[in-house]
Every structure is written in structure tokens, then in C-alpha cells.
Inverse folding.
């Protein structure tokens, strides 16, 4: 696994605040994507999930995360879909190839790398989904795992 430091771009996103089983993530992605398309916004390529806790820490019902899409354009939020700008930030990142359910070792590897190399993790892990599970086999899925960091 190759871990890199990089600076992300500032992006505007439409997102849903979610809780409970990760099995609902594909439905949430579809719901946010459909909303962005219905609003005739220009998708800019980032489909992501940010995870605020972990199944290793809490029960399935207590899982907290957000699912979103980056876009260009102007639109107001509603009761389900929220809008925000994610600021540019320094991250440690690595690519996971394979099923989403097997991304855990990459997350742990980046966290360990951060600790061993003078970084402080300053926010939750984000997974950026680089291809579409409807278009490729699970073994070909690409996920960019990102941890926001600061040098100690």
C-alpha cells in the first residue's frame, strides 16, 4: 500500500447525514445522486462517505456518517439534502482496490502511518469512491481513503 500526503481541492457538496447500517449506503448514494441530477447541477466527480465513528467502536444502530456528491452550481438545501463547502486540507491518502467491505486494513494502515511519521489526525476518515459498482466487479472497485492531518 502506497500512502501519500496531498492537499485536497475545495469543493461544494450536496450530502445526507446518515446513521445506522452501512448496508444502506448504496441507497443513500443513489438518493443524493438523483437529487443532484434533478436539480440539473453539474457533478464534478467526487462521490464520498465521511465516517464519524466505526463499527469497531459502536453498535450498528449508532453508526454516524454522511454521503455526498461534489457539484458546481447554485441550489438551496432541503430537509434531507444539505449543502456545504469542504475546504482544502492536507490529507494522508491511499487507494484500496476491491470490495468496500475490505477497506478496513487501508484505514488502519494510514492511521498507523500517521502516528509513526509525525502526523496528527485532525478529522474523520473519508472514502472517495472512484468508480461505480454498477459498472465494475467488486474486485475492481477503487476507493481513495483520506485522513485529514497536520504535521506535529
Amino acid at each position: 500500500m502506497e500512502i501519500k500526503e496531498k492537499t485536497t481541492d475545495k469543493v461544494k457538496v450536496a450530502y445526507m447525514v446518515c446513521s445506522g447500517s452501512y448496508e444502506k449506503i448504496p441507497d443513500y448514494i443513489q438518493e443524493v445522486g438523483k437529487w443532484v441530477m434533478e436539480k440539473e447541477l453539474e457533478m464534478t466527480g467526487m462521490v464520498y462517505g465521511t465516517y464519524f465513528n466505526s463499527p469497531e467502536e459502536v453498535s450498528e444502530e449508532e453508526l454516524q456518517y454522511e454521503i455526498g456528491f461534489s457539484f458546481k452550481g447554485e441550489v438551496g438545501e432541503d430537509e434531507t439534502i444539505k449543502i456545504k463547502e469542504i475546504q482544502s486540507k492536507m490529507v494522508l491518502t491511499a487507494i484500496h482496490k476491491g470490495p468496500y467491505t475490505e477497506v478496513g486494513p487501508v484505514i488502519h494502515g494510514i492511521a498507523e502511518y500517521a502516528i509513526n511519521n509525525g502526523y496528527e489526525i485532525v478529522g474523520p476518515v473519508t472514502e472517495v469512491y472512484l468508480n461505480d459498482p454498477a459498472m465494475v466487479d467488486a474486485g475492481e472497485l477503487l476507493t481513495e481513503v483520506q485522513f485529514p492531518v497536520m504535521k506535529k
About this structure: The mean pLDDT is 95. The chain has one domain: 4-151. The two ends are 23 Å apart (CA to CA).
